[in-house]
Amino acid sequence: MTIVQSPQSWIKHTFFIGIIAALTACGGSGGGGGKEPPMAPPDTTPNAFTIPAEQDVEPGEEVISEAVTINGINRPTPISIVGGEYSINGATYTSAEGTINNNQSVTVKLVAPEATNETGEATLTIGGVSATFSIATIIDNTPPSVTITFPPAVSLTEGTTILVRGTASDELNAVESVEVNGLAATSDDGYATWAAEVTLEPGVENVLNVTARDSVGSEGDNLASVTVRHSVDLNIAFPDDQVQFSAPQTVAVDAERNQALVVDVEQRAIYAVDLATGIRSILSENKEGDEFPLLLERTDFNYAGIAVDSENGVAYVGSSTESALTSGPTVLSVNLETGARDAGSQHATSRVSHLAFSADADRIYFGSFQNGAFLALDPIAKEYEFVSWSSNNIPVDGENPLTSVGAIAVDNMRNRALVTTATGEQLVMAIDLSEENPGVRTPFSTASIPNTDNLFTASGNHVLTSITVDAANDRALMVDRGLDAIFSLALGGEEEGARTILSDADTPNALNTLLDPTSVYVEEGMTYGLVVDKERKALMAIDLVNGQRVVLSKSAVSPP
After folding, report:
1. Nearest CA to 166 among 181, 140, 183, 187?
2. C-alpha span between 366 and 356 (Å, rounded)
3. Counting runs of H as helices and runs of E as strands, what totals does the chain give?
4. Is 278 helix (H, G, I), strand (E, B) or coil?
5. CA-to-CA distance for 441 and 368, rounded, in angstroms?
6. How far apart are CA 438 and CA 254, in angstroms?
7. Can you tell me the distance from the alpha carbon of 552 to that of 525, in angstroms, rounded to the nearest whole number?
8. C-beta neighbour count of 273 within 10 angstroms
9. Do the beta carbons of residue 211 and residue 174 sit within 8 Å?
10. How is residue 65 annotated by DSSP?
11. 464: which DSSP letter?
């Protein structure tokens, strides 16, 4: 059947369809047009989050975590922390409760424990979801560092016990204990310094090993060790009977090569003594045809002065005879590698005192024990100048005359030399080395200056034969051959020049006594001093704290 629509009918149907579509777009034919869609329900439970842990943290350090972005919430959400502080988007750190919004970042701050091998944590809670920020301090498996300051690496003693002294330190924790061969050491400063009196097995070499432990249990065995031989007979050779001394006189230290240099006036030789082993060798000796022999031939007393410029590999030795006409150069230079000798000065004198080298001034100081002249030698130009000479009015004022020069040491801190008299009244004079007052003499330590306590020998010839500066203890050490003693002289303070006895037949005891000390030397950085005992034919080591003595190297001598 054919249906025919009129134009009017088509228009009416089209209008009707449009009305239906409009009503549908408005949500139906009912009222309420223009209402907002309903909001999502509140969500204050964030997605799970983690805070990466931190390892190897320094004790006591403030640690800030990596930033964590919080999401999965649609409302301001409560935030709290236990054990630390938090910051939202870089704001000030706080431990108070607060709120955080979606897509904001948070960091946690925590202070590490004060000790190593410890952990710490802070728990951050947001909307009931928690994460823990954990940190761990450095793990300390390293035992304390230990040194033995006395005795030296090898030594000989007649004592049945020996007081071992040393130091201990730990970078991360406190030192809890130090033991020497199982014997607990004592200390009153947390083992920064310690001491232990150890019984020696008689007649043999005793190896003394140090064990130390820190407060977290890190412990080490054999952290330091020395070897001490016991012998009731000190006339034996030590450590062996090779290359023996005949008449050792003076000593200095070549720090670069870890050796002591000893001048032997009978052998006309310079011995090298290995400070690690005590073994002796000849560095330089006279040979036929030498251009510059060691002329240590005075019959009264040879100071046989030796001074070392270790950094430049050279030693300087005083060389003289009975007459200046035959003495050759006053000072010889000695190559510390080869022992080769050369002229250190262009002039000659027959009565050369001890020598002292100042690296600060690059000068060698020496004097005459005949007329009291005190000179400075330029080792490059090989020329010297008079610094002080009483009889020639140098300096002009002429005060505090000095009639002879024996031993010399340089006090670099105060830019002065300390000089002992060689003959007559025994005293110590200070000579100014500054450019402002060169050569000015000031009595430093005498029978009445600074007081009358602990007097050294009052007069004589060649009694105060050696003096050295112990800069670490701000003092000088001096030999007194009349008392067979080592004196300590204060370098500064109200009691400058005050005397105490560091070591003698009674101080600290009668073990390994000095029979004829002729030279004493302290090298900067060493923890003990060196003393030449001419009668024992020995190089001794002396404890700079209490004066105890041991033998470092010696030749055999006949029993008395």
Report:
1. 187
2. 7
3. 1, 41
4. coil
5. 16
6. 29
7. 18
8. 25
9. no
10. P
11. S
Coil, helix or strand at residue 426: coil
CA distance 254 to 239: 20
Q: What CATH class is the domain 54-137? A: mainly beta
Six-digit token string for 61: 């350090």
Q: What are the structural domain ranges in the chain?
A: 54-137, 145-230, 248-554
Q: What is the pTM of this model?
A: 0.84
Tell me the helix, strand and coil percentages in the chain, rounded to 5: 5, 40, 50
Structure tokens at 136: 């761990």
Residue 503 phi, psi dihedral angles, 5° rounding:
-155, 125
Q: What's 333's DSSP letter?
A: E
Q: Are strands 269-274 and 259-264 parallel, antiparallel or unpaired?
A: antiparallel
Size of the chain, expressed as the number of residues it contains: 560
Asked if 245 contacts 554 with a C-beta cutoff of 8 angstroms, the reply is: yes
CATH fold for domain 248-554: Neuraminidase (2.120.10)
Residue 503, Ramachandran bin (φ over 0: left; ψ between -120 and 50: alpha; else beta): beta
Tokens of 506: 């009674």
What does the alpha-carbon distance between residue 187 and residue 171 come to, in Å, rounded to a whole number?
A: 18
Instruction: Say how many CA atoms lie within 13 Å of 314 toward its Cβ.
Output: 15
Please check whether residue 501 is in contact with residue 212, taking contact to mean a CB–CB distance below 8 angstroms.
no
Q: Does domain 145-230 have CATH number 2.60.40.10?
A: yes
Q: Do domains 54-137 and 145-230 have the same CATH topology?
A: yes
Residue identified by tokens 């510059």 is: 292
Whether the Cβ atoms of residue 250 and residue 518 lie closer than 8 Å to each other:
yes
- Please give the Cα distance from 527 to 514 (Å, whole number): 20
333's CB contacts (< 8 A; 6+ apart) are: 314, 315, 316, 341, 342, 343, 344, 379
Beta bridge partners of 79: 98, 126
Instruction: State how far the Cα of 260 lies from the Cα of 521, in Å rounded to an integer.
Output: 10
- Give the pair of three-digit tokens for residue 172: 């991360």
Which of 508, 518, 499 is CA-nearest to residue 543? 508
Q: Output DSSP code: residue 268.
A: T
Q: Which two tokens stand for residue 167?
A: 């130091």
Torsion of CA 403, 407, 409, 415, to 10 degrees: 0
pLDDT tens across the length of the chain (560 residues): 333 444 444 334 443 444 334 434 444 444 444 566 677 899 999 999 999 999 999 999 999 999 999 999 999 999 999 999 999 999 999 999 999 999 999 999 999 998 888 999 999 999 999 999 999 999 888 999 999 999 999 999 999 999 999 999 998 889 999 999 999 999 999 999 999 999 999 999 999 999 999 998 999 998 999 999 999 999 999 999 999 999 999 999 999 999 999 999 999 999 999 999 999 999 999 998 888 888 876 666 788 899 999 999 999 998 776 665 556 678 999 999 999 999 998 777 667 889 999 999 999 999 988 889 999 999 999 998 999 999 899 998 778 999 999 999 999 999 999 999 999 999 999 999 999 999 999 999 999 999 999 999 999 999 999 999 999 999 999 999 999 999 999 999 989 999 999 999 999 999 999 999 999 999 999 999 999 999 999 999 999 999 999 999 999 998 87
